[in-house]
Amino acid sequence: MTRDRYDELVKLGRDWVATMSGVQWRLGDAALEIEPMRSYGGVNPSGKDDLFTVSEAIRMFAEDVGLAYTTVRGYRWVSSRWPKERRRADVSHTIHKVLASIPDEQERFEAVNTPPAPSPGRPCEVDARQRETGGGLEGRLPGERPGEGGGDP
Fold it and tell me: In degrees, to the nearest 5, what angle opens at C-alpha 49 toward C-alphas 47 and 50?
């Protein structure tokens, strides 16, 4: 493979990731609109007054759009943790998902704005500390050394 072809595929891949992230946000936002986040147990945990419980509504939406319930539930949660004005279009949905677990809002919102400095020759490589804390952009999987990986986990 030539370097030009590789660079072309990287550009296409980044475009696909951006498209995929956009779809994940839209699905999460739709699920959040169908069922806004509630405290544990919800206002109506038994579903007696509502047409559906939260789980039933999200499960039905997931089935109707052809996705797994857990996938849609995850997208909904990530959307709930990232108001639209705090999302970064240049940072993947996956990274937002990793950072969504940071309990402190201010810390979470700052973390997405402070990606690691690019490494020479590997613009998105993340060191071990950043992988563990979610404090960086997409990189190698835990335990991989430079040049390894590339397969499905």
Answer: 65
**Do residues 16 and 32 lie in contact, with contact meaning Cβ atoms separated by under 8 Å?**
no
For the question of whether the overall pTM of this predicted structure is more than 0.70, the answer is no
Amino acid at 106: Q
d(CA 111, CA 84): 16
119: Cβ contacts below 8 Å, ≥ 6 apart: 125
Give the separation between CA 18 and CA 130, rounded to whole angstroms: 22
Q: pLDDT tens-digit profile of 107-134? A: 999 999 886 555 555 444 344 334 443 4
What is the C-alpha to C-alpha distance for residues 17 and 1, in angstroms, rounded to an integer? Answer: 22
Quickly list DSSP for 88-99: -TTS-HHHHHHH
